[in-house]
Amino acid sequence: xxxxxxxxxxxxxxxxxxxxxxxxxxxxxxxxxxxxxxxxxxxxxxxxxxxxxxxxxxxxxxxxxxxxxxxxxxxxxxxxxxxxxxxxxxxxxxxxxxxxxxxxxxxxxxxxxxxxxxxxxxxxxxxxxxxxxxxxxxxxxxxxxxxxxxxxxxxxxxxxxxxxxxxxxxxxxxxxxxxxxxxxxxxxxxxxxxxxxxxxxxxxxxxxxxxxxxxxxxxxxxxxxxxxxxxxxxxxxxxxxxxxxxxxxxxxxxxxxxxxxxxxxxxxxxxxxxxxxxxxxxxxxxxxxxxxxxxxxxxxxxxxxxxxxxxxxxxxxxxxxxxxxxxxxxxxxxxxxxxxxxxxxxxxxxxxxxxxxxxxxxxxxxxxxxxxxxxxxxxxxxxxxxxxxxxxxxxxxxxxxxxxxxxxxxxxxxxxxxxxxxxxxxxxxxxxxxxxxxxxxxxxxxxxxxxxx
Amino acid sequence: xxxxxxxxxxxxxxxxxxxxxxxxxxxxxxxxxxxxxxxxxxxxxxxxxxxxxxxxxxxxxxxxxxxxxxxxxxxxxxxxxxxxxxxxxxxxxxxxxxxxxxxxxxxxxxxxxxxxxxxxxxxxxxxxxxxxxxxxxxxxxxxxxxxxxxxxxxxxxxxxxxxxxxxxxxxxxxxxxxxxxxxxxxxxxxxxxxxxxxxxxxxxxxxxxxxxxxxxxxxxxxxxxxxxxxxxxxxxxxxxxxxxxxxxxxxxxxxxxxxxxxxxxxxxxxxxxxxxxxxxxxxxxxxxxxxxxxxxxxxxxxxxxxxxxxxxxxxxxxxxxxxxxxxxxxxxxxxxxxxxxxxxxxxxxxxxxxxxxxxxxxxxxxxxxxxxxxxxxxxxxxxxxxxxxxxxxxxxxxxxxxxxxxxxxxxxxxxxxxxxxxxxxxxxxxxxxxxxxxxxxxxxxxxxxxxxx
Lengths: 453, 453
Hints:
homodimer; 8-stranded parallel beta barrel; globular
């Protein structure tokens, strides 16, 4: 079994119901405090105590209105509705931590590159180089309508546009201010040397930008790039840009295949197979004893909402389960749905009945349940058998799920030598990849850099 | 002299050189730490100690490239370049304060209403109802080019578009979720009542939006609305929307005229003359003794940059002073410049020589200099003779300027009974206007509210 350190992100969202739907109704769950700062600073402090690599904050634009053709279940069960902006949480959490990274999801399909570039640069400054960006292109028609569009771009074209968007951002982040341009020289009365600050000129198919990047270079310049695309086009996008990728899988064979495919794409793109860290979504329910953990799982199940899980999944696969009999065969579309979800559903022949069984905890993602030894065994076996680097740990009942993990599982992993016992100094990128604060020269951003003056 | 309490905002920006250019070179100035969280949390703590009503954070998109036809002076002297995003500062400061308000500038000309509405709702949630929005429409051609446009909309049309933008935001903030729609009922397993959550449908000249507002109602719903428009069209916009307005003036007569005109527009718009709080930009240099304060001013002047002040002002009035002789008469344009600046410059016949004199502290705004008694006398006399409600205090050498004001001037104002001795409980809006957390029924937003279910 590998002695490589397992990487850990907490997987959360600025909302009530994120993955394990219904659990907000558990008496000890505090996710309805998502709109208060104390909720987030407490979470960040707990995660840093557990030496977590990062807090990954999901986001979605639009609402889940595929199930029953309306958003009623989403509203009633708080299925990622309401959902507040994720970026605005970061500075408060950064102020109470020193090492924890923050991976923030932003859908680039509705953002202006010049403004989004500045927002990420600002966070990278304020966190001292601890920010990442989970790049998504969106998949909900309701988001397009809210943005005044008649509909989304087709799936693959969304990625074409995203590729150009990234080029613009690299120009702004990597090419506008030369290294050392910001002199900050009080005695010489020179803040920046104008000859080293350049206007970006970009005229492309989707974007036209002419301007100096408004932010001086931050620790990482480009935030650590996360991506979750699992379609063929999505994997090619990840192979070009991503430094961390999230995968979700039904079983180890599926995940192993997906990881192998991604690493193959990386090498084709001129990068190293391990240039991307792969995180798998999972939930852990741990207690001091195995029976205690299983009792806790049973208790949680009493508060979960299978229907809410189905309403969420319906949007992901583009199927209105409200119109489908319990045992009807289902033709999962591949349209604007999340392709990996639709593919898994198709391959496994999931009927509505089967899905409702899977959603016993409000989500189809695997729950790893047991005492610390059992949980550590399972985490290690997922890593060994699939080639992933670590986990995106979804919350169940919060904050107790995070506190139990930190108190019970982290020490067990440390005893086994598969988890760090202290943070490495340096930026989030350096902590994850060990090659310094900036993107390596073999990354696509390199061509947009200026030779250093 | 009025016993009305004077209102106070600190006036700052997420950048090095904001108003008083060149002072970043002073050995004690810490504004080059603008990109660190400690700089902002310290500022917020100081302001709350001084019972400031708010921290007003300016912003600008684009660069000051009118002077000499390029941004070289702006870059060299850090004239609002670099400038980081202001919204992302708020949560860290909110976490270390309980009452301080945050007025954040966002240029709506380049934002999507559906996304901006959520960002402000998020901040209003996280601050517990302490957020305001300074609505600007921009004036720099360099911003338009950075956004991929061939140029800005004409001045008055920018406000027409802004009016429609505001209507969309009121629909989202005030009309999408009924009061009480968010039940948060764990026992009943109902987060929100779907029958009380409504899709906004807006199809206008500039915007099309169809969607449920992603955020549940926050304390204030609509953030406190600030505005600084001083043109005729700008004042009509303010009369319809604003709850606080910023003015800048050369002398008391100018300011009094401007305040009278604004209050007249308010009444014409069906609101009360005092429905808008008027803040005037000023800088205070205070010391334990009058001679000490004047010595401090002289010391500061040695570090100020008159040329940087001129480069900033050049963009505001649309005149390239790099091409103008010291005593040449100047034809100030009214094009995309800031009309009040251009008008003042025209009326006072400011030549380049006169401006360089005015910019002795790096800015043309009045500096109020003296011991606490002298400063309090002057602040009170501005209020009494112009009808303003308070001040936007620009920083000079930071943080000492804020600390000196809080330690010396605040107690003097309190002794005179013209400044609060404790915060009122409640939201920023309630603190400023005393009529509760929400916009009053006589505000334009009222028509976008739903009858309460």
